[in-house]
Amino acid sequence: MSEATSIGNAALKGVFWSIVQNWGGKLFTSILFIVLARFLSPTDYGMVATAGLVLMLIQMLSEFGFADAIVQKRNLEPSDVNLPFYASVAVATLLAIAVCVFSPELERWFEVEGLAPVIVAICILLPLNTASMFQEVNYRRALAFKPLAIRTFISNIIGGGVAIVFAIIGLGVWSLVVQTYVATIVTLIWLWRKPHWLPGATLNPGTFVELLRFGSSALGLRIVDFAATRLIDFMILGHYGVALFGLYTVGSRLYQLLMQLLQAALYDVSLTVLSRISHERERMAALYKQSITMSAIFSTPVFVLAAALAPEICNVLFGVRWQGADGVAQPLLLLGALQCVQFQNAPFLSARGKPNKVLIAGSIKAVSTILLILLVPTDSIREIVIVYAVGQLTSTPFTFFFIARELGIGLWRIFLLLLPSFASSGFCFLLVQWMRPEVKLLGAGDFISGILLGSIFGVAYLLLLVLTARNEARSAIALVMGKIISRKESKCAS
Q: What family name appears in the similarity comment (predicted)?
């Protein structure tokens, strides 16, 4: 078997199990999220989301971007991981202690009564999360996504079951904290019981510096991205309080779920696989055009459909307690319709050894988003979300310019590949808004109205796609079906 065929088969299996991990795990947690929303208040979700902001920041700092650096390095010895592991765990431990000590000050700064014990409880998990991350990245490097998928199912089922019990008996915010604890401990045990790598005493400072150099660019990107994407969280928390921040958390859930389901699985595998063919520019260019075409045809309309049906979806899933969540969800979902294609650029640039280009685009996005949120006056959460979405789009022309130049693809060619699905999705969105009052006159509930409007969207999109991009759609469908058939034949042969 040739190396190219071997890599292709490994990538195919990796994509399948990474999708199982993301789709299965995220679908289960989303069902759990919906169930818990019936028992918990916006304040409960707001408190845990606030503590999560703190944990997210310090965990990002403690990892130094080593995860991406380890995955992309072509020739990596097991001993090369030792020093990054020890350094990250040590920093994670120190940061966790510091956060615990200063948790009362953080509670006063956020102006959320009762937040300190929640922050302490969640941040204690930081060293465990860091240890799990290093083991998981070695699983990913080996394209061992099947055990990661099984791990996700088990940790979600156990943690979710415990959280529901705690919520039913009235423990409120602590049901979410316990869920995090159970999932973290199960993940740690699962990954380290059959490790793909074990820490040793051999330290390689030279490799450490090399990994740190690559990781620092990835870390810098994540820091500026955190500033750009999470400033809105702090603004909502500061201006409207923890309860409305909880409402924003629930409203943005649909956007986050779709981004994770449709993109995260492919990103996990793509950086691993692309790093192995990064020296073949023409091959990467062909793969890139294929990837963005598939994302535009399949992923973009899903986001636009969800945005069009946001009022019906939020009412059915979350109930009357969460009125206003659709106003948050809709602009974010429309943003995701473009981001699901744009995010293909980052792994290709990183695999080509150009994370600095991703950092530049991310910095532009961060600065633009921060300035817009701070300078544009808003009177509601929905208005802040719209301003945030506009800021996120400022990096779009830069990322496509960088990838076009790096892979030798014309910008006009990229535009033509994306135009049919984007135009068709936009027209269908407007069609649903126009038809909603007519459907409401039928007197059906939100569930039936959503089905009718969704059917209108789907039929119209398919007709428009046939008229505007028949060949591209046929090729994308044939590619997907070919991979499915190839996988079945491979499974039967084994």
A: Belongs to the polysaccharide synthase family.
